[in-house]
Amino acid sequence: MPRVVHRTARAGLRVTWGQRRRLVRLLASGGDVWACVLELNAWRRARQDRPLVSYQELFRELACAGPGTFGELDSVGARSVLRRYSDAWFAAAKRRREGEGAARFPRRRRALMPLRWYHGTFTLEGRRLRIPVARGRPPLWVRLDRDLPYPPSQVRSVTLLYEVGRLWVDVTAEVPVTCYPSGQAPDPERIVGVDLGIIHPYAIAGPDGQGLLVSGRAIRAEHRMHLADTKARSRAVARRAPKPGQRGSRRWRHYRRRQRLAEARHRRRVRQAQHEAAKAVITWVVDRQIGTLAVGDPRGVLSIKAGRRHNQRTRDWRIGHLITALADKAEAAGINLTLVDERGTSSTCPTCGSRVPKPPGRVLTCPACHYTGHRDLTAAASIAARYGGGITPVIPAGVTHRRAGAHLPGVAPSRRDPRRRAHHRGARRSSGRHRPAPPPV
Description:
- By secondary structure, the protein is of the alpha+beta class.
- It contains eight helices and 15 strands.
- It has helices spanning 17-46, 55-65, 75-97, 217-236, 250-287, 308-317, 319-332, 375-387; strands spanning 4-14, 115-118, 123-125, 128-131, 140-144, 155-163, 166-176, 187-196, 202-205, 211-215, 290-297, 336-341, 363-365, 372-374, 399-403.
- The strands form three sheets. Strands 2-6-7-1-5-4-3 form a seven-stranded antiparallel β-sheet. The chain has a six-stranded mixed β-sheet with strand order 12-11-8-9-10-15.
- A hairpin with an 8-residue loop joins strand 4 (128-131) and strand 5 (140-144).
């Protein structure tokens, strides 16, 4: 049986007002199930009884409720809420046993709760999806706003959720691991070092003096423009902000909704750009039959206080998603990925091993042996050496350059970023590439 991995794709829903009301009511019914579990355990806690947290115990309580208790919500969707509560409770208990005192058990109510249905309970025909409802209710067919990247035979579950005013469906499928022809499979003995950064999300130093640099300057520009836009919005509505305890005006609620939409759009843009960067890395690695990725883990620097500006950069970095995106794509391609301690790799000479002062730019120069190379590629070479791949020489002539975030606004001259102010006062165009002045007559 071929190896498979589970992958999830998100698609929006194109629904009528009637379908939207029914879907929101389903999510609200899921929130009612969640609230019932919280209330039940609150009563048991008040009587000093043991809480009901296992999936089997909660399912028996749901069966006693009888059909029709939660409107159109069927039993499969209700059981998915119970499964979510049980997993959250046991995850918090595990974190507490490991000494994490900040871990909290699920005790907060939610108005809308995501619902999940598994294979055999829903119907998927192209872009049409039938969502299960309670027995005796009319069928609920909805339409997806895009084609799914998986064939219907591989889909194993669908999850209905509500995020920033829109209804979404997360489709999870079983994707087989890539099979290669004879002699073209990745070799686990061929190792590359991967250095994670802000300017370059991925810098790779491979064997035979080959390297890869994925530029993330477009992602950094997106973060900066979003921060400036958020500050401008806050200053514009500061006078209309409600006092504590007040509901706020209609204009204020409209502003908050627009702010949530802008935040969600920003997260989707950055997430897509990081996925593009990870895909460029895996494509480069597969073409060179490399079977092992030694990735430097820089998450230890997140707890270091380095000033207001640098703390903002590290918060926007999203290291966890960079590692997760690369690990998921590497697993689907049959490539091993291992995390390595990357402390000191950007300031250590890969030739003589001496400490090098931090350079002001991207070029590192060793004062002891006069080695010169790209700082991120040097760090990747040191990471590969720590894992056991040997010292990888960095030759500038063998470096491949890729760019992440080509879809972001403002990257190409043809797509203007509406958040960017005009370069000249009174000009309506964005500050793009200036044309040369006409020759004098």
